[in-house]
Amino acid sequence: MSSLAQFFTSWASTIQSSYGVNPWIFIVIYLATLPFTWWLFFLIVFSLKDKKYSKAGYFIVLELILLALPYLYLLIYMQNIHWLIRVAVVILIFWSFVSLRKRLLRKQNDWDDIAKDYDSISNISKAHKEKIGYVSELATKNSPKTILDLGCGSGVIEKKLDEMGYRGEVTSLDSSEEMLKIAKKHSYKNFKPNFIYQDLNAQLPFREEKFDSIIMVNVLFCLRDQKSFLESVNKLLTTDGSFVLVNPKPIPTTANFFSEHFKGLNLVGKIREIGRVIINIPGLIHLLVFQNKLDSQEKNKDSYDYKDKDELATLLKGAGLLVEKVEEIQANQNWLFYCKKA
């Protein structure tokens, strides 16, 4: 008999004599869970490395359940155990799996997952930077004392406003905790934005406040009741206030981003930008995958609802807003509407 066979025979004998159960069932369960426990171990390590603590927590719970499975078999079937204890163990196992399943299937905020990559790409993409610059210029065109940014993301507009020397009050809302964490880490010299976590599908947290300028970049398509939201925006504007709305075109193409990014560069500039793109390839792929997800959901009208130019104009007019300017921006991927109160 080989040493490996002797080891398993001895192990089985020990289990049999100690617990009075079928030892081979225990050994099969133990060996079957072994590769999955190692796989989960690496998932936990990588999740912690990427600071995705929520995912790491789920994987740790799964890991503990898998490690406990062979011993739960012993606890349930070993001799001289009262039947009430066995029933309690079965109920506990069932409750654990149901609870874990609910947490794993709970809809996560899509924007939390891409926050870091979104911020990185926004800072190197020429199309994104030009969009943020132009939106910031329009928002400050009439020297507003107060600005409201609905869906501020990682604070790219706030950073641009600060760079421009804006010194008014800025209130910035977003429904992604990870985006807000990044936004709060930026240093601001001329003003301190008031960042607020807020689900924009819920009622906005304002009663008497009014704003001279309101910005909303690539958020409207995520909202369930777009008409009611725009009506709320109109109510929040001061008499001479302005509203800058940017919204993606239905099913845009990402190819334009690349042609726009390299447009007007000489050979040295193109080589430099290619290097920057290569360095950021993982984040870029992540965003492209996310964009594809948005597109597929829009096709099925699942979670997102893009509008074309005419539909947006009708919504804005119906909400009591006067459209003064309509433009294509961000490599012709987005519509921009500059509005005032009607």
Question: What does this entry look like structurally?
Answer:
It contains 13 helices and seven strands. The chain has two domains: 103 residues, no CATH class; 232 residues, Rossmann fold, CATH 3.40.50.150. Helices cover 58% and strands 15% of the residues.
Please write out the topology.
Elements: H1 3-19, H2 23-49, H3 53-77, H4 83-105, H5 110-124, H6 126-139, E1 146-150, H7 156-163, E2 169-174, H8 177-185, E3 194-197, E4 211-217, H9 226-236, E5 237-248, H10 255-262, H11 267-279, H12 281-299, H13 309-318, E6 321-329, E7 334-341
Parallel strand pairs: 1-2, 1-4, 2-3, 4-5
Antiparallel strand pairs: 5-7, 6-7
Can you describe this structure in just a few lines?
With 342 residues, the protein is an alpha/beta fold. Helices cover 58% and strands 15% of the residues. The chain has 2 domains: 3-105, no CATH class; 110-341, Rossmann fold (3-Layer(aba) Sandwich).
